[in-house]
Amino acid sequence: MRTTYLVKSDSPEMNGALVEITGEEWYEITKLNASLPKANRRYFIRDTIMDGSESDSIVIEVDRSEYRKWKAERQTLWRHSKDNNGIVTLSLDMPIINSETLSLMDTIEGTEAAENAYFAGKVIEDLKAALIEWKPWALDLLEEYLKGSRHITKWLADQCGVSEQMARRYRRSFEEFVKKFLA
Question: Partners of 19 in the beta sheet?
Answer without folding.
Answer: 7
